[in-house]
Amino acid sequence: MLSAYGYPKYAFVKSPEQESGATGHYPVVVVGAGPVGLAAAIDLAQSGVPVVLLDDDDTVSVGSRGVCYAKRTLEILDRIGVGDDCVGKGVSWNVGRTFFREEEVYNFNLQPQPDHKRPGMINLQQYYLEEFEIKRARELPNLDLRFKHKVTSVVPHGKGATLQVETPIGRYTLETGWLIAADGARSGIRGMLGLEIEGKVFMDRFLIADVVMKADFPAERWFWFNPPFHPEQSVLLHRQADNVFRIDLQLGWQADPEEEKKPEKVIPRIKAMLGDEREFELEWVSIYTFQCRRMNSFRHGRVVFVGDAAHQVSPFGARGANSGIQDADNLCWKLKLVLAGKAPESLLESYSEERVFAADENLINSTRSTDFITPRSKTSLTFRNAVLTLARNHAFARALVNSGRLSVPSFLTESRLNTPDTAVFAGDMVPGAAMEDAPMKEGDENFWLLDRVGNRFMLLVYVNDPTAVEPALASILKALGDTPIPIEAVLVSSTADKTTGSLRVFEDSAGRFCERYDAQPGTTYLIRPDQHVTARWRTFDTNQVQAALARATGNTHNNQ
Prior knowledge:
CATH architecture of the domain at 16-91 and 122-197 and 297-366: 3-Layer(bba) Sandwich
Oligomer: single chain
Distance between the termini: 53 Å
Number of helices: 15
CATH topology of the domain at 16-91 and 122-197 and 297-366: FAD/NAD(P)-binding domain
Number of strands: 28
CATH class of the domain at 16-91 and 122-197 and 297-366: Alpha Beta
Largest sheet: 8 strands, mixed
Radius of gyration: 25 Å
CATH superfamily of the domain at 16-91 and 122-197 and 297-366: FAD/NAD(P)-binding domain
């Protein structure tokens, strides 16, 4: 039991199948109530899809585990109803500092420009995130969350999969149309289906120690190469909630994991770092090795893999839980359309394609970070130390410093769902990009753009004067909401206190939308339900919008 956290225990509840003796039938079953499985189940359930979520445990994860949650992930957590809880409890930060021996050689700011709702990162123990998600899940009447229900057999078939589930009082059977495997790095589902995960394991070991202490360290990421308190190795420090500090200490491949976890080995290492006068309490210790691996495909018929079940990266860069939650965000809107009969099953292939691309990007960055942090030869070590020495005074060297390239959303520019640009735009909001936020105003209400966008297709049309929009155009934009796959159309304008009477108007109150989206009068953006840009034009055209929507939902031959 941790001194800073009291673990909740979630009661086992007998399933309806055990009450009736009949086989249960559900559109979607999710296996694994970690951050990713919970995010997927909540996303589906709050949109009206009945979901069963199975987990073989009865509490949240032990120890801090996942620590850093990036701005993009926080924006997704906002849409499933737990963002405020996470940011309120977590430690927000934007600045990271890198030290070589005792001297700072490099720093960065994740959010150098103002006017974003969420910080670049928060630090929050994984058990809090899971607790907040479980609370949210229990608010949804069509989400059946079952603890101490362990899947022991999966038999896929053309219409889904048959599951055998073991509980403390016996076994039962479920039939599901779609199975989402979110059961972690040692995925039992993956093993039952005989599927492989390929990549490499790096020959180094790191010790994670959570310590409780009172310290006035700033809310920043600190990373040391070869510090005097841990020579020839690296160290990472993060502040978390409840005065818990996460310390990662490189140990080397020869270290004995069981021996190094003992308090009599850990405490002297931390004292060397913090000083003998600093009082602290050792709360949780673990040893890990780097792994950079992924499955060849994340979709196998009607079984879909998300998070660590599909891909694993080293923890430096915070690319694990962040990419997993982005997996769920990418998958769920597509699955909803398929379940509703509004998109073909082939749309789910784009889930695997897009998230395999993102996983490869994460694996490359994670591998490069690992190679820099743990050089595999004397030549690599000499190069690394030279870079760190030069970084004190030279910008070109700072660009080479790599203590973990931090998680950012992937630009899905090659996705089959995108409609290529036919006009010239400046900035980063290309088709495939995750949207940038901006402060907005509607009437007398101030809000953030990303709080009003997502979970549906939206069309943002930039105009100078909303009152000058032709009635015929307003009528066409309004009618898009009644199409088989509805599109909500909104006008965006820099003009205050204007209304069309029939269309919503978002006022670009700080000019950030115009700046970040290179908006000119007539500029039109089509936004996917996961807040990724899928198409944009300099002028509105109904036929172009309808063609782009068909492409984005797999309802066109362009997706083949």
